[in-house]
Hints:
By secondary structure, the chain is an alpha/beta fold. It contains 23 helices and nine strands.
Amino acid sequence: MKPSLVLKMGQQLTMTPQLQQAIRLLQLSTLDLQQEIQEALESNPMLERQEEGDDFDHVDPLANGDELPTPGNQEITFKDTTTTVDMPDVDESEWSDRIPGELPVDTAWEDVYQTSASNLPSSEDDEWDFTARTSVGESLQSHLLWQLNLAPMSDTDRVIALSIIDGINNDGYLEESLEDILSSIDPELEVELDEVEVVLRRVQQFEPAGIGARNLRECLLLQLNQFPAKTPWLTEAKRLASDYLDILGSRDYSQLMRRMKLKEDELRQVIELIQSLHPRPGSQIESGEAEYVIPDVIVRKHNDRWLVELNQEAVPKLRVNAQYAGFVRRADSSADNTFMRNQLQEARWFIKSLQSRNETLMKVATQIVEHQRGFLEYGEEAMKPLVLHDIAEAVGMHESTISRVTTQKFMHTPRGIYELKYFFSSHVNTAEGGECSSTAIRAIIKKLVAAENAKKPLSDSKIAGLLESQGIQVARRTVAKYRESLGIAPSSERKRLV
């Protein structure tokens, strides 16, 4: 084959740096967006925050005459809290001639403009707070080691205790056998198995109660042993936990009453004492880092109308620094002027991306409120089926854009704070030919279980029959799936003595 030149025509989807930046900002959560804005403020001198009382009567250079879209339903309104820009009263031709309106596609900011990443806080900065970035909650292991340091022990016992603590899982149970713990200890210490068991008893006296147990029976007995001797029904509770725990797990209360020779009311009080114990004592120690949710959208009812507005406290308003923008000159091609012109263009597009993010978020949130007004009025049972395609069609956007907008974005409503994805759910057909949301079905199942007879809990088949009587056609396996998603145990495990 000979090499040859061939001309071909085709279409290819490409993205400009501006579009890439807008998409990236759109999918950020509020906390991530705040960090992104802070980094932009530190790296770009052309950006500054709008302070309270600032005058923003200047013409917005980003405005193109288009008004923000308003929802079709007159009962739903929203307030525009989009980012504004304040520009100096200078001739725009002085600095805009050399700033392109669009950048070439498939490029990055760093390819065209200088960045100031070196100005970001480093680990050597005096103001850099190391603990704020690395601190986490107390772990179970550190909690036990803290108690071990306070306990009077010999050096050999302390080595054994360290091996025991290493074998305790997050639930507080000792996973390793005493023989394995003994084999992990230095043979030169000449430790015997009896010594390991004695040290284990010492560790089991640490807090929380029940720590270091090897099974559920031992865990419950360790906790019961810490109750005062005069506690009512303590002896019977110890006997139940020691000898009849399997029967209690099978909910065979008749057999329990016969074997323990207790009446129904007496057995109920013994079981209540057992249920007051913690089956996973290690989980009481909070080891995770605290997570905070900042709502992006606030929904409230005023004069029988639902108002939708952006959370003004979540994202600060930005503007272009008037003083620095006034230093940019058209004819000056020095390195300093080029740097400032590049920073000015980057600031303008960053603000425009924020404005686009706010507008898109408002469109989507308004349509969600319009579709789910029944939920806001009456609760989960009034939730309507909703998928991404419905919102995408209403706002004239692609489903992938709606998915980005609803990810890690939260709405504050009179009923609580919900992620925007919470309002989307599949549908189930009804007997009348309509549709019922899966979220509404879960709420009905939860309501039916809460009102059931504790002695004869509803089975999945019975719940499916009750739903069918309400016109909702749901299979038994679907009921089981919804029940498990709600964290509701099967009927055999929900049986109680009343």
